Amino acid sequence: MASRRGVQEIVVTLRPHSREHRGGINALAEGGGLLYSAGRDGICRAWDVATPGAPPAHVASLVGHSDWVNDVLVSGDDLVITCSSDQTVVLWGGARRNHERLWTLNGHADYIKAIAYSAATHCLVTCSLDQSILLWDLQAAQPAARKR
Asked: If you average pLDDT over residues 3-12, what whole number do you get?
């Protein structure tokens, strides 16, 4: 197309939906026969890696963060938990619950870098670059204790 004087033409090409990460991978977790990858594209992806010698088969994309997904873990009670540089923790249903988004937890003031969970006590702990460690009350979906 010809451009008029003083008018600049801008063309934007959008990528088609992909089942691969569009950036680096920050963390991996295994559970329920699936491998989960936490990506710098803001997506956690689930892969079926059960067939030896076959390439991993994409099962699901857990989309809900607006920044890097820094860690992922899988609990024994069909729960997938992700944390992100967007300062949120997202709890997802596992494969038996079609990876549905269950809750979003807010409480940190900077990137959340790691998470730990005990299925026996239903205890979730997160740590952040805000120099805090939060113990979460999952029933109330809020921090139960803060440690600096």
From this structure: 65
Average of pLDDT values for 61-82? 94
105 in Cβ contact with 64 (< 8 Å)? no
CA distance 108 to 96: 30
Counting Cβ atoms within 10 Å, is residue 73 exposed (0-12), middle (13-18) or buried (19+)?
A: buried
pTM above 0.85, yes or no: no
3/147: higher pLDDT = 147
Q: Is the pLDDT of residue 12 over 80?
A: no
